[in-house]
Structure formats: C-alpha cells, structure tokens
Design a protein that fits this description.
The protein is α/β, with parallel strands linked by helices. The protein has two domains: 75 residues, no CATH class; 310 residues, Alkaline Phosphatase, subunit A (3-Layer(aba) Sandwich), CATH 3.40.720.10. The protein is 34% helix and 11% strand. The protein has twelve helices and eight strands. α6 packs antiparallel against α7, α8 packs parallel to α11 and α10 crosses α11.
C-alpha cells in the first residue's frame, strides 16, 4: 500500500501538472535537491564576466602573491568598496601557460581545453540545474565567431547583445519560461499540502512535506515578483546597439537584466560577455575621453601599444562592475534557508583570455572573484597564490562549489588548491 508520503508526492505532482518547469533551482516536481546543494558550502548562483584582451599587469596585480589584500593597484582600485568580498588570483595559468593568440585562448577560457567540443562550464551548470543559461553581451557579436560559451560538440553559444530583447524575453511576456503562475491555483495546492501535513505521523514524512510547502511558497513568491524594472530609466535605442558609445548604457542594462532574473529565480547561472577578443571597442566614453585627449584607442590596440591607457580602460570596466556587485549586495538573499545578501551567496568570476596583450601571455591571469562571503569553507578578502596551476582547476572547483560534479574537459583537472578550506 502506498505511504502517505508517496501519495502526497503524487498529488503534489498532479496539482502542479501544466504549470511547467518553472522553479527556483529546486526540482519541485516530487524531487528534492541533494543535501550537498542545500549546504552553505555551495553557492546559490554563478555569474561569469568576460573582459577582452588581458590587462596591464603592472597596474592590475598587487605586489603580494598571497595573504590579505593590503593594496589595490590602479586598475583594481574601484574594487575597494567590495574588498571584504574580493578574492584575487596570483600566478594562475591559462591551461599550461603555453600558446599564442587570442582565439585559441578564448575557446579554452570556460571549457578548460583548447578543443571546445566538450562544452563550457556555464552551459554545463545550466543543464545540470535544468534551466536556460543567461548569456548576454555588450557588442560581443559585432563580429561573429568570438563567443566564450560553447555547447557540447563545440558549437558556440552566442551572447544576446540587445538588452531590450533580453528584457522582453525575461520579463515582458516573451520569456522562454511559462507565464506567471496563477496564484489561486498555487494557493489551492498549498491548502491541499497543508491538509496532508496535518495527517502525517512520521517525522521523516513530515519533514519532506514541509520541504514541499517551503518550495511551493518560494514558487508563489517568485511568480509574483519577476516584473522586471522601469525601462524608461534607460534611454536605449536598438538601432544604436552596435555603436561603441552605446556600450556603457548597454552594460548597465545587461547588468540590471541579470540581477533581476537571478533574484527571482529565472536562472542560477549567467555569462556577461563584454565585447570580444581582439576587441575593436573604442573606449572614448566617460572619463577616458578626458584622460586620453589625443584620440580614442581600441581595447586591442591599447593592449599592444599603451599599458597606461589599457590600465585606465580596465579601471573604467571595474567601475562599471562595481554597480553589479552593489546591486547584489543591496538585495536580501531570496533563498528561504539562507541569510545575508545575494552577494553573500553568489560568485562573480571576472576573466579574460590572455594575461598581457603585448606578449599574449597566459600566466598570472587577470582573474578575480567577488562574492561568496556567506559561504562556509570559502574565505574572501585575500589573494590566492596559485603556483602556476591551470585555470581548469578553477573551473573544476567552481562546479563543485555550485553543487555539481564537474563535466567536460576540466573534469580531469582536480581541485584548485586553497580555493576552499579542506
């Protein structure tokens, strides 16, 4: 004879039939997340931010190769406001630190291999959570064939460079997930589950049904708060999305899109691709135009010809990313079993395909992570000395921190030593 627990699960599934697969990182339809995924040792979400053409390392890396963060060089100086949530890397290599050229390096960045045929970590994690990957761009597809995200088989997953199209898909009735769920139906399901709960006698069955109720209430809350934001605050024109001068506004909107989508559970994994490798983006906006009064210099051009200008370009970039970090910090963590801010339970990994443009180097990569201050076994506010370890080990470790088993080429790399406490 069926137990009350199995009957409750069966009726729960029936009641939710037709509501689609919309869920907040949970397998709501009669299944539960693993205990590892519910642990505070795991992050709730991962955002990967790509910036092109490396950095001027003399003004990116601190002099120290380990320990606490005592000073932030010019390019990283805007990050002082999130110093307590910052993890810097020293002597981390892209793969084995060998090779030349941007294209191959970009393919290996999120795949952990020069051959992208096994796919990239952002795609793997999204598939593992059974959610659509949010991959948005800022002039990333101005020339095709430069994505950093790959499906299994090696096909590129292009970024969506239109913040308006992203907004409409996510929040304005055109999203790939179902329409907002009917609150009356959800309240009926909640009432039925509460009735089952009153009839249960076993502690184990009671706990499982209470978990269903918590997940349902999260779903009810989520379904009513994915309304997006006020588009009128952003004077965006679709016809100008390929103009370099539009990049700051597009970046602001894409950041807003990601934060809104992640906060209401539409996804747990996102990739923000800012331009592309060998970037032609002329960064003559904001203070850069005044600082470099000679002529606007392209990102790739600066990486080869003027370390000082590239350092200022990267400083500007980090100033924009601070907006992302502050939005996450200002929002309470929505997961019912976690406290603090979204930033406390989110890892934002910032990466580039090479270390220094003039040399096309692949050692001492300009990577950092912001967030994760609420996670156990993960310490922020420090510099991690990687001793020329492969960045594939970082990908492996991030998959584990996200509560999944590593997949693809980086699955054989093993843990990055020191990223988490043993």
């Amino acid at each position: 004879m069926d137990s009350i627990d199995s009957l409750a699960r069966r009726n729960f599934i029936k009641a939710l039939a037709g509501l689609g697969s919309f869920f907040y990182g949970y397998e709501l339809l009669g299944r539960t997340r693993s205990s590892h995924s519910l642990s505070l040792e795991t992050a709730e979400r991962l955002i990967i931010v790509y910036h092109p053409d490396g950095a001027f390392l003399e003004q990116w890396h601190p002099k120290s190769v380990g320990g606490s963060i005592e000073e932030l060089p010019e390019s990283l100086s805007p990050l002082g406001v999130v110093r307590d949530q910052l993890l810097l890397f020293r002597n981390l290599s892209l793969l084995d630190g060998q090779g030349d050229g941007h294209d191959e390096a970009a393919r290996s960045l999120l795949t952990g291999s020069r051959d992208p045929s096994q796919g990239s970590i952002d795609v793997h994690l999204s598939e593992g959570f059974q959610q659509a990957l949010l991959h948005v761009g800022v002039l990333a597809n101005k020339a095709q064939g430069h994505s950093v995200s790959f499906f299994a088989g090696g096909a590129e997953r292009p970024a969506d460079d239109s913040p308006l199209a992203v907004y409409r898909r996510l929040f304005d009735g055109g999203r790939e997930t179902p329409e907002l769920l009917d609150q009356d139906i959800l309240r009926t399901v909640e009432k039925d589950l509460a009735l089952y709960a009153s009839k249960l006698k076993g502690q184990r069955e009671q706990l499982k049904l209470e978990q269903h109720l918590r997940q349902l209430r999260m779903l009810m809350s989520t379904s009513s708060r994915c309304g997006g934001y006020d588009l009128s605050l952003f004077p965006y024109e679709e016809s100008k999305k390929w103009e370099d001068k539009s990049a700051p506004l597009i970046l602001q909107m894409q950041i807003q899109n990601l934060v809104e989508a992640l906060s209401c559970g539409l996804s747990r994994v996102a990739t923000l691709q800012i331009s592309r490798h060998t970037s032609p983006l002329k960064m003559d906006f904001d203070f850069l135009a005044r600082w470099n009064n000679q002529y606007p210099m392209e990102s790739h051009q600066a990486s080869h010809n003027s370390g000082e200008i590239q350092a200022q370009q990267k400083k500007w970039l980090n100033q924009q990313l601070v907006h992302l970090f502050q939005l996450l910090k200002a929002r309470p963590e929505p997961h019912p079993n976690r406290s603090g801010s979204m930033l406390d339970h989110t890892l934002v990994l910032v990466v580039s395909e090479i270390s220094q443009g003039a040399s096309h180097g692949r050692k001492d990569m300009p990577f950092y992570i912001v967030g994760g201050g609420g996670l156990e076994r993960y310490t922020t506010g420090r510099i991690l000395s990687c001793e020329e370890a492969s960045h594939a080990q970082l990908l492996y470790s991030l998959a584990r921190i996200m509560g999944q088993e590593p997949r693809g080429a980086y699955a054989a790399a093993g843990e990055l030593r020191g990223l988490t406490a043993s």
